[in-house]
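Retro notes (design track)

What went well: tokenization of the new backbones is finally stable.
What didn't: we kept losing track of which sequence belonged to which structure.
Fix going forward: every design gets posted as structure first, then sequence, in one message. First example under the new rule, 300 residues:
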């Protein structure tokens, strides 16, 4: 038997090094997640003092963008906007060639596509991303990051990027991640506003939000997600059988919501939007169709 101490960790592959450009709240969270996962991390920010807490955790602070981008093959950017990122990288075209840029900066699909074209001209592999969590959730079980662009980039760096959250690949069009981001935020705001309207409605009769919310969550995660899955197929097929609930039935229920809201002095802007779409479809002769029929109202 050998008397030498065992070192199981020596059999583990070395963690990939990474550069993080931008240390706002989100950029700081990204760098922290890489460090927590054991990735050698170089950071840069215009305000150098923002790097100090990360340096205390083991990060290396680059004195300039030029010094940062040569520290690793993988660059992760999360700055104010796309114009800011282009200005940070200006003049470094030669150093960027052959490296990989994962851009987690918020922007439009059109900006992402322009950035991908610019990167391709430099020989810079490019992946655009959208972070679907707030900074405190980065690296946690609920964190998801959407990616679109060069498909081999996510394959090569999947293990590293997984430190931030579950990576979801959306295809080669760099603009798709930003498009999903915008659409999903719209869904979130609609759900949150609907929940707040419900809280106000039941609250007018003395029900606490803490008592209403578990029932609301069960409704959303069960029946409502089921409706969405069912209506997705109907929307793609442009066929809207009203076999679960027709628009006529939905409108009758919406009238009850509007009445209850008016009676309690609750703002009715949100339910009036719902009812207005339904009335348009019914007036066009589609009262027997499912709720999915409203896609044709919304598209207009």
């Amino acid at each position: 038997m050998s008397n030498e101490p065992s070192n199981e960790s020596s059999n583990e592959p070395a963690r990939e090094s990474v550069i993080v450009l931008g240390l706002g709240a989100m950029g700081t969270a990204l760098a922290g997640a890489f460090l927590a996962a054991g990735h050698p991390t170089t950071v840069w920010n215009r305000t150098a003092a923002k790097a100090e807490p990360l340096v205390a955790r083991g990060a290396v602070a680059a004195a300039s963008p030029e010094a940062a981008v040569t520290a690793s093959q993988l660059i992760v950017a999360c700055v104010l906007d796309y114009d800011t990122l282009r200005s940070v990288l200006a003049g470094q075209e030669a150093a960027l060639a052959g490296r990989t840029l994962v851009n987690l900066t918020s922007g439009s699909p059109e900006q992402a596509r322009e950035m991908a074209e610019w990167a391709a001209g430099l020989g810079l592999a490019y992946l655009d991303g959208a972070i679907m969590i707030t900074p405190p959730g980065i690296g946690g079980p609920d964190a998801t990051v959407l990616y679109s662009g060069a498909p081999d980039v996510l394959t090569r760096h999947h293990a590293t990027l997984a430190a931030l959250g579950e990576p979801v690949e959306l295809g080669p069009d760099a603009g798709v991640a930003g498009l999903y981001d915008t659409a999903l935020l719209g869904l979130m705001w609609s759900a949150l506003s609907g929940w707040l309207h419900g809280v106000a409605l039941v609250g007018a009769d003395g029900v606490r939000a803490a008592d209403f919310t578990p029932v609301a969550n069960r409704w959303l995660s069960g029946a409502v997600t089921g409706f969405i899955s069912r209506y997705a197929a109907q929307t793609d097929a442009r066929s809207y059988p009203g076999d679960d609930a027709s628009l006529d039935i939905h409108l009758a229920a919406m009238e009850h919501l509007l009445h209850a809201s008016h009676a309690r002095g609750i703002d009715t802007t949100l339910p009036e939007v719902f009812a207005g779409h339904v009335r348009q479809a019914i007036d066009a002769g589609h009262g027997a169709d499912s709720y999915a029929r409203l896609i044709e109202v919304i598209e207009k």
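Added context from the reviewer: DSSP finds twelve helices and eight strands in the chain.
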